[in-house]
Hints:
Elements: E1 15-19, H1 23-35, E2 38-43, E3 55-59, H2 60-68, E4 79-88, E5 99-112, H3 113-121, E6 129-131, E7 135-141, E8 145-150, E9 155-158, E10 160-163, H4 170-175, E11 182-194, E12 209-213, E13 216-223, E14 236-244, H5 250-253, E15 265-266, H6 273-286, H7 289-296, E16 302-308, E17 315-316, E18 319-321, H8 336-353, H9 357-388, H10 398-409, E19 416-418, E20 421-422
Parallel strand pairs: 1-2, 1-10, 2-6, 4-12, 10-18
Antiparallel strand pairs: 3-5, 4-5, 7-8, 8-9, 11-14, 11-16, 12-13, 13-14, 15-16, 17-18, 19-20
Helix pairs in contact: 1-3, 1-8, 6-7, 8-9
Amino acid sequence: MNSTVTSPGVARGLKVAVIGGSIAGCAAAIELSRAGCWVTVYERSTGKLKDRGAGITLSLSLFKTLVERNLVDPDMPHFPGTKRPFVIRSGKEECDSGRILWEQPIAVVLTSWDVLYRNLRSRVPDNIYHQGCEVTALQEIDGNSVSLRLGNGQEFLFDLVVCADGHNSLGRRMLFPEQSLHYAGYIAWRGLIEEKLVPDIELFEGRLTFAVYERGHCVLYIVPGRQEETQVGKRRLNWVLYENVADKDLPAMLTDSQGFVHKTSLPPGKVPDAKVAYVHNLARHHLPGCARNVICATTQPFIQAIFEVGIPYYRKGRICLIGDASVITRPHTASGVVKAITNAITLADSLTTHNSLDTALSRWDSEQSAAGNKLVTLGQTLGTALVQKVPDWKKMSKKDMEQWWTVVMSGKYWYATDEGREQR
């Protein structure tokens, strides 16, 4: 196996396996192939990959980078997000749409998982993307190569293996068996509905709305339609409602309509009617009308338990971890997709910059693992402030909100919070 190939860097001719063909895996395959690597992608699913329709946010700077590097189309369906209003229930009346406590300037791009995945997948050649191939074992050979075994017994040797296989990553379990998923103490109710079912859609134009209440908050924003439409009337509204749930109550919360207990989430269609009625009732009694109307119009919400995990390194030997195969942060950081793509881009850049594979991987690991663990800490900070120990929103003024946010962040940054200037 050749690990000392020269110019451009060590990348050219490097034989690389990417485990996982979702967003992180596709980004890695594109960037590494363009860098000159021979890439093979192994995706265990056999059908078309699709998310539950979840919306995603990207920083404006990252979106510009994706366009510049031809990872997405310039006209990829999306919407700009320039404001983040914090909205509270102002009265008991059902017509109460809510009162804005504070509105932050932000600089984000609002889209959906499906849209981003399609853009990335279209740039990965079909002849290197192998579906129905589950990787069951990895083993380093003399520190110079990695043996990869598939579920059908086939084995292959690679110079480098990039694990982009998500939350339950084989690579993470192999490299860091002591690092298991940690339940954060709360869940996210999630949903997606057609724009035509939202009576006050204009309230969400250009906004990443935070509807706050005593148990947490609900995030709402517009995303493209089912067929990626962006025209008014055919879009959708994505929402995420956070609620504290004790460890002992989590199994009951994740029990589906057939009585089966899921480990981390309940998909759409699996949430029992009683739980759907519960979240509708919660919205009616605690959230401002702009959020209540959306949640109560969602007939098939789903539930995601919030987990996190940190790891000391992103790489051991010739095995690297990217995306959710590395650290997992709480979703308040809006960094899942950002982290995955950034990991892939910086890995390819490091391999084209250095003529030694070990040097390239060490430099990349040092930067990405430090950044990843900062995101874990940021997620904990935001989770505490926005869900677990929320202020008394009803007593907060605009000045109080500004002071509260300054104390919460304490030098950290979440997109744009300083007069509209994007910070990273």
